[in-house]
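User: Small ask, check this?
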Amino acid sequence: MTVRADSVTEAPVNFYRPDYHIQTPDMRSPEYVQLSTAAAITLGLVPGSMHRTACTHCLNLLVTYPEGCRANCSYCGLARHREESRDYADRNFIRVDWPTVGYEDVIARVRNGDDRGQFERMCISMITHPNSDHDTFVLLRKWVDQVAHIPVSILSNPTTLNRDDILRLRDEGADIFTVAVDAVTPEIFERTRGKTVDSPHTWKKYWQAIEWAAEIFGPEKFGAHLICGMGETEREMLDIAQRIRDLGGHNHMFAFFPEQGSMMEDWNPVSRDQWRRVQLARFIIDYAGGRIDEMRFDDAGRVVDFGLDRSELESLIASGKPFQTSGCPGKSDEEVSACNRPYGDSSPADILSFPFVLNASDVGFVRRQMAGEDVGTLDHEDLD
């Protein structure tokens, strides 16, 4: 049965349940990988369609093992504490299912053009597992050898990587290196990703990896994932964004969404006005030459002045670009992400990261949210 993604509700749901999604003990990396639902649709592995977008432009892959990730991040659908789920592959990750498929099959489909030329990038996402480092190198080498025309990003696990590993990833063909910092203060990082939740990650090691990436991969070739809405102020979020940009990297923003079954499943999603201000300010820092020291904040750390003159700011908002998904770039526009992650942090009825170019109605929706209006869903005609 084909299920349209525009039937998604506010609660996380499983879009598709093909038989091969049920992982067996033999289905492990590097022979097998998990891939996002959007990538599976684009490759024709799963039937379906996505609201207002035909595809994802990034082939997002995840190393996979039946025993799962050994970290225990409080907001993550893959966290170790979810071991009560008998099937690791049943755990959703950034809202959607990740079917398990043979890696050689994925490569063959891309080489045969089953993606209709849509993929502009491939990303290997690591997890905390004893085999993850080794298998990431295997996956990278096979891809570079067989699909050299599509560049590779690495979403790293700094906890298990050293400087030589990062250097080797670059030398073996990785194009961009990213670090999922996620939590933007040492305190929030510790309570969501560190010893407080019996997880192995440390703020110090993650920032060390970013600094190594800046040195080894160089400007415009590394980035950080940041999640908005885990208790930080807007100023704290943008302080980190500026720090990444000053090193030469880019910021890939995610809106916090309470993952079902995670320790933070009862947290509220990020407030819409906060998210829109942070999206806009992040874009100004990354692509419009602005700086946080040119912005102004109120006593609660909210942005009250973006540091641009009114006409420039209005033009930027009207373009819609700041509100599109942020991630590793594609071929056509450095300011627009190839990794558009359709509906990874919200439903199509209330889009937080737009996986497509915004129209005038979409921009109006965003403006109302920025103004603090209680706009819960897009107008019905925008969902057609």
About this structure: Residues 1-20, 88-94, 380-384 have pLDDT under 50 and may be disordered. The chain has one domain: 5-383. Residues 5-383 form a domain with the TIM Barrel fold (CATH 3.20.20.70). The first strand starts at residue 32 and ends at 35.
